[in-house]
């Protein structure tokens, strides 16, 4: 039988170390909503989302009470709109109409975000997908809760450099069009390589075409719990350190599994996956940087940081796969700058640079995330940063992503405030040398040799 | 049987157990096990209870116990046992 100390340990994790379920995300297929008429399509989408996900928020709140664990976000992801709108949308404005419908659905059912304003263009763009990508700045301006993602490469297909070039400009335009709000539009736009179909985390969540009609995916989190566990291993050798992180990850993931099964049963929607990612928040103590520093680094960014992150990421996975039979999504450690107080401090202390962050993305999930750069950074430089990150993903057969915010009107030395879970960020310097000619080549980078496994 | 765990944590004082137990009796909640200790001057109690005959919904009970805790000056939580079983048992 459960004893007093075990109960106390669990409740300490929740109350003092910010253990929470980061998100319950319902993935909803919109393929059956497709119609050649844009108004009918919009109606179908509205009807489907508000029917399937109508009880999501209420169910989440019930589970919170039942187990005494906070569920921070309730979200919806949908089939990439690049597919759904292909036959109905003749212009970027038509796509914006769909974005507004998604936004209305999200507000009505009370979710925090809705993801899937997306295009999968890793090898080539259809006409519709290009229209969708070009509509992103306007869509991000006119909606509040819609998240957009574009998959521009994969290990199997290589990297679509035409899309990379275009998206650099789109990121810049999105920043420009939302400049009154510190270019916040870019915080809802992510560029991916090897994007997973079942990711519950924003901004990259969409409901892939390989998925069922609807599905529940859950993301757990608890950097604070892991950090306190690492604290108990002070001075111990790496084997012991790893063991402690692994055991902690197991405990955290089991809670996620419990919540996912419960939500699945209550909503009568099949359970998809648990995403094991450790995701920080701006709350003090809820930081990945703190975990790394607890391992023995003075500041995150110091030599040894990449190795420390590799340990963390690997042990979280090892503990997590034992706790849940179905893991998926991104599953690793997120290293967003603006959402992690330890990262922000490291940037302000001059310990952490864009280049070091890029190196860190080789060993953890996702990539350059929530990084504010000077607003004067050119579209082609942004494309260059994206191309680098996509190459890391393509060659290493992993997901990588770029969510950078060129903050219009601000430069190095200033900070930008996004508010809420998105936090705030110091503007980071970008390498000043040009990559214009490289980006202007256009075309496609061929798939790497190790993708040919058939 | 619907087992749940009640935890009561706070500064020790006269009558904590009495008040909590009175509430449970009124709410038709059966106590299966109690363990209690004083840690660094703080009262720590864990009860395993059966809520299958409870008059109210689980979420209502949670809220009412939280209110009772505020009245006494301690923190009272009611949680389904599975969160602990899943975390601490394979």
The number of distinct helices of chain A, counting runs of at least 4 residues, comes to 15
Named CATH architecture of the largest domain in chain A? Alpha-Beta Barrel
Helix content of chain A: 40-55%
CATH topology name of the largest domain in chain A, in short, is Anaerobic Ribonucleotide-triphosphate Reductase Large Chain
Radius of gyration of chain B: 13 Å
Protein chains sharing the most extensive interface = A-B, 21 and 25 residues
- The rounded Rg of chain A comes to 21 Å
Termini separation of chain B: 21 Å
pLDDT < 50 stretches of chain A: none
The profile of the biggest β sheet of chain B is: 4 strands, antiparallel
How helix-rich are the residues of chain B, as a percent range?
25-40%
Describe the structure.
The complex is a heterodimer of chains A (454) and B (90). Chain A has 454 residues and is α/β, with parallel strands linked by helices. Chain A has two domains: 23-193, Anaerobic Ribonucleotide-triphosphate Reductase Large Chain (Alpha-Beta Barrel); 221-442, Alpha-Beta Barrel (Anaerobic Ribonucleotide-triphosphate Reductase Large Chain), CATH 3.20.70.20. Chain A contains 15 helices and 13 strands. In chain A, the strands form two sheets. In chain A, strands 1, 2, 3, 4, 5, 6, 7, 8, 9, 10 and 13 form an eleven-stranded mixed sheet that branches. Chain A has a two-stranded antiparallel ribbon with strand order 11-12. Chain B is 37% helix and 39% strand. Chain B is built from three helices and four strands. The relative contact order of chain B is 0.29. Chain B is globular. Chain B has 90 residues and is an alpha+beta fold. Chain B has a four-stranded antiparallel sheet, sandwiched between helices.
